[in-house]
Amino acid sequence: MDGTNKWFVYMLLCDQKTFYVGISNDVRSRILQHKNKQTISTKKFSILQIVYLEKYDDKFQAAKREKQLKGWSHAKKQNLIDGILGINACNELVEVTSEELNCELVPNEDEETLARVTSQT
Fold first, then answer.
1. What is the distance between the alpha carbons of residues 52 and 67, in angstroms, rounded to a whole number?
2. Could you read off the pLDDT of 38-56 as tens digits, one per residue?
3. Domain count, the chain
């Protein structure tokens, strides 16, 4: 799913109320860092759900889009997720990543436990 030449802009829904926008060239690892409370910006949240992904060919373009999305209101971000502002071309990636990482597990699960839980589904 994640190639080293591809960059992703992702959006997390935190505790069902706040959006977090970030970039990564390895979305799976980055989401695990968020879930395992290894990132300052999301460690205070209990429930994290990946809700949006966009794919870019280089880091510069991904960072540019990340900055744009971070400037948007909550309502505008929700419209993007809902497809009102265009088509979420990475819906399948969101679904697969969300299922793969079981993004609504109770936090503080270690990666081994997470892998065991997700492999049962």
1. 15
2. 999 898 998 888 888 888 9
3. 1
Pairing verdict, β 7-14 and 18-24: antiparallel
Rounded Cα distance between 65 and 102, Å, is 26
Any domain includes 1: no
Structure tokens belonging to residue 45: 């949240």
Contacts of 102 (CB under 8 A, 6+ apart): 114, 117, 118, 121
Entry pTM: 0.72
CATH code for the domain in which residue 55 is found: 3.40.1440
**Structural domain that includes position 86:** 7-119
d(CA 101, CA 93): 12
